[in-house]
Design brief:
The protein has about 375 residues and is an alpha/beta fold. It is about 45% helix and about 20% strand.
C-alpha cells in the first residue's frame, strides 16, 4: 500500500494496513534539514514541496502537503478594479519588511509582512484598519463576480511526489478570513462581538466568493483529495463558542454539502483549545476529519476521550505536542507518546498519527524518526 493509498483509505473511513503517520513538518523544518533558509525558498533556489517530499521518502512516513504543493484553482477574471504595488524595506541582512498596496478608484489600502531568513513570513498589519473606510476599498479591489481556470494546481505536482500523501483545497473559515484582513486580534474580536451591518456584508461576501471558488474547483478533474477548512483563529483559545456558532457553523455546513455532493471529504483544522469544537462538529455538521486535536498545555483535547465519544464517525488526525515533547523530549519519550496515541485512537482505522501543529524548525530529527518508528512498530492492522 502506498502512502497515498494509506491516507486516502483512512480519510474515507476504510481500514489501511497500518496507521498513517504525518510528522507535521513544513518548509520551515525541511529547509533546515536540507541546509536552506527561508530566503532560498522565496527566491526559488529550493522548492518547498520537493523538500517535504524528500524528507517523506527519507523517513518512510506519509505527507499532507498543506503547503509547498498546492491544490488551488486560479481566478481568471473578476469585476474588481485594482492596481497592486509592492515595496520592500531592508531591515538588516536577515530580514526585510514588505508592504503591499491595493490602489482602487475608492482609495488605497495596504498590508505589511516581515520576511526573515530563519522564520516563515509573519504578517504585521492587515488591509483593514478602519472597518467602514477600508472594507469598500477591499471589495472594489476583489469584485463581486469571478471566473476560474479549468485546471487545478494539483496537476503540476510530480506524480511520484503525490504518491507520498495527499494535498488539499484550502478555504479560510469566516472568522479566520476576517482575522487575516484585520490581523489585530483585539480589533477582530470587537468587530465580531459588535456584529455590525458592515461585518454581516463582509461575511456574506466571503461566503459567496468561497462557495463560488469551491464549486468551480469541483468541476475540475482530478477532484480534490480533501477540502481543508483552515480555522486556527477559530480556536476556543481565541473566540467563544457563541462566536463560532454565529459566524462559522452555517458556512461549514454549506462547504460540506458541496463537497459531499462530489464525494470529497472535508477536514477542519483547529489548533489550540478545540475539545468543545470537536463535539460541535460531531453533533451539528458532517465534517469528516478533525485536526490537530492539540493536547494540553497548548490545547485541551484528551485523545482517548475524543475517540470514545466521537471516533465512530470522525477521522481523528493528531496529536503529539510540538513545543515540549517533539522539540525538547527524547526519542524514547516521543516513541512512547506516539504509541500511546495509537492505543488511544487507532482502533477501527479512523486515525492519522500527527503532531498537534506544525513542527518547530529546530525539532531534533531523531524525534521525528522516533514518531515514524512508532507507527511502523505499533500501528499495524
Amino acid at each position: 500500500m502506498t502512502p497515498r493509498d494509506r491516507m486516502l483509505r483512512v480519510m474515507h473511513r476504510q481500514l489501511p494496513d497500518r496507521v498513517p503517520v504525518v510528522p507535521g513538518f513544513g518548509p520551515w523544518y525541511a529547509s533546515r534539514i536540507a541546509h536552506y533558509d527561508m530566503f532560498d525558498l522565496e527566491e526559488g533556489r529550493a522548492h518547498p514541496g520537493r523538500l517535504m517530499a524528500e524528507l517523506t521518502r527519507k523517513y518512510g512516513c506519509e505527507m499532507w502537503f498543506w503547503t509547498g504543493y498546492q491544490d488551488g484553482i486560479q481566478e481568471m477574471s473578476s469585476d474588481g478594479q485594482k492596481t497592486v504595488q509592492t515595496e520592500r524595506k531592508r531591515l538588516d541582512a536577515d530580514s526585510f519588511m514588505e508592504t503591499t498596496r491595493l490602489l482602487t478608484p475608492r482609495g488605497t489600502i495596504e498590508a505589511t509582512a516581515l520576511h526573515s531568513r530563519m522564520n516563515p513570513v509573519h504578517p504585521r498589519t492587515g488591509y483593514i484598519k478602519d472597518l467602514t473606510r477600508d472594507w469598500p476599498v477591499y471589495r472594489m479591489a476583489h469584485g463581486d463576480h469571478w471566473t476560474w481556470d479549468n485546471r487545478t494546481m494539483m496537476m503540476d505536482i510530480p506524480p511520484e511526489d503525490l504518491e507520498l500523501g495527499v494535498t488539499s483545497f484550502d478555504i479560510l473559515l469566516p472568522v479566520d478570513f476576517w482575522h487575516e484582513l484585520r490581523h489585530d486580534t483585539a480589533d477582530m474580536l470587537l468587530d465580531l462581538y459588535d456584529g455590525s451591518v458592515t461585518l454581516q456584508e463582509i461575511m456574506e461576501w466571503h461566503r459567496e466568493y468561497n462557495l463560488c471558488r469551491l464549486a468551480a474547483r469541483l468541476q475540475v478533474k482530478p477532484l480534490p483529495d480533501m477540502i481543508h477548512l483552515a480555522g486556527s483563529s477559530s480556536s476556543l483559545s481565541v473566540i467563544s463558542p457563541e462566536l463560532y456558532y454565529r459566524y462559522n457553523l452555517n458556512f461549514i455546513n454549506d462547504v460540506v454539502a458541496l463537497a459531499h455532493a462530489a464525494e470529497v471529504p472535508v477536514m477542519i483544522h483547529h489548533c489550540g483549545r478545540s475539545g468543545r469544537l470537536v463535539e460541535i462538529l460531531h453533533e451539528e455538521t458532517e465534517v469528516d476529519i478533525v485536526n490537530p486535536l492539540e493536547p494540553p498545555p497548548g490545547g485541551d483535547v484528551d485523545l482517548a476521550e475524543v475517540k470514545r465519544r466521537f471516533g465512530q464517525r470522525l477521522v481523528l488526525f493528531g496529536n503529539l505536542n510540538t513545543f515540549q515533547l517533539m522539540l525538547h523530549g527524547t526519542p524514547a519519550e516521543v516513541k512512547a507518546a506516539a504509541r500511546q496515541a495509537i492505543e488511544d485512537a487507532g482502533a477501527n482505522g479512523q486515525f492519522i498519527l500527527c503532531t498537534g501543529d506544525q513542527l518547530g524548525r529546530d525539532t531534533p530529527e531523531a524525534n521525528v524518526m522516533a514518531m515514524v518508528e512508532a507507527a511502523h512498530d505499533y500501528g499495524r492492522y
